[in-house]
Amino acid sequence: MSDTLGQKSLAHRGFVPDWTPGTKAAKGCLVVWERLINSRSPFFYWRHVTILKSGQTRKRQEPMKTRIVLVDDHPIFRKGLASLIAKSPRDIVVGEASDRSEALQVIEETHPDVVLLDLSLGGDNGLELLKDLMTKHTGLRVLILSMHDERVYAERSLAAGAFGYVQKDEVSQRVLEAVSAVSNGRKWFSDEVKELMLQNMLGGGTTVTPDVASKLTDRELEVFTWMGRGLGSRMIAEKIGLSIKTVDTHKEHIKQKLGCATTQELRILANEWLMLK
Question: Which residue in 15, 25, 215, 223 has the fewest CB atoms around it within 10 Å?
Fold first, then answer.
């Protein structure tokens, strides 16, 4: 009788705690143990700890992954890129799109942190889509993937709101590094482009964009590029979704800016410029 009373008295005074699962003593021990385990300094490193009811399994919260949407008109490339990202424990692909309309819909539905965007989307203009995304989704971080020369398009992409630029031929080596950078709010460009940008800021060396491209707007550069590939006004209009009249107007503006007397002279210049890129 006295022993029982003694144990109750000690338990009441806190010296013989009741360790039955679900009691305050058991819960308190689990919280202290969690803090000790996660301590990274002489001070406790506090984390959110969920203590579940007796009989349930306690689970540690998983770190938030970077949510990514892929926008590229080549299914095989998207599949390979998705497989590469799947190897990263920090990232997850939450959606894919092949053109502008799909991209806008998928991004609206999935609310990604980062969008990997190809500048060439069949008949759609990746730069124009980038501008739309920056207007509609404040805080969205876009990383450009492209086969185009980054010395020409990296600066334009940055001006349009992109956080970085990765050429497709180096995606396998650089894309995870680039995604990590932009998801943490940092810009990402190759060392070559960084050096060229610095030279441009200091007023020395060459500019980031070749002289021809630097004189043209984004739309004019697109028309000029298609001309260099041998397309006429009708095919260019179909490619970029403009009227033939509008394409011809862009051609006239380009001729004036580049000092070309005829359309044929402009076409030759466009072809030579593409060969030199």
Answer: 15
The position carrying tokens 């308190």 is 28
Q: pTM to 2 decimals?
A: 0.58
- Among 94, 101, 135, 136, residue whose Cα is nearest residue 115: 94
Phi and psi (nearest 5°) for 21? -50, 135
CA distances from 213 to 11, 159, 224, 277 (A): 82, 14, 9, 11
Residue recorded with tokens 């990263």 = 88
Query: In this structure, which amino acid lies at residue 26?
Result: A
pLDDT per residue as tens digits for the range 166-220: 888 888 888 899 999 998 888 888 777 777 666 655 655 444 345 677 788 888 9
Structure tokens at 61: 């919260």
Identify whether the C-beta of residue 134 lies closer than 8 Å to the C-beta of residue 126. no
Tokens of 219: 């739309």
Look at residues 77, 68, 128, 67 and name the one whose alpha carbon lies nearest to residue 98: 77
Pinpoint the alpha helices (H) of the chain.
Answer: 2-13, 24-37, 75-86, 100-110, 126-136, 150-160, 171-183, 191-202, 211-214, 218-228, 233-240, 244-258, 263-276
Alpha carbon separation from 159 to 171, 187, 205 (Å, rounded): 22, 12, 21
CA atoms within 13 A on the CB side of 277: 22
- CA-to-CA dists, residue 110 to 90, 95, 113, 153, 236, angstroms: 17, 7, 9, 28, 33
Closest CA relative to residue 17, chosen from 30, 34, 35: 30
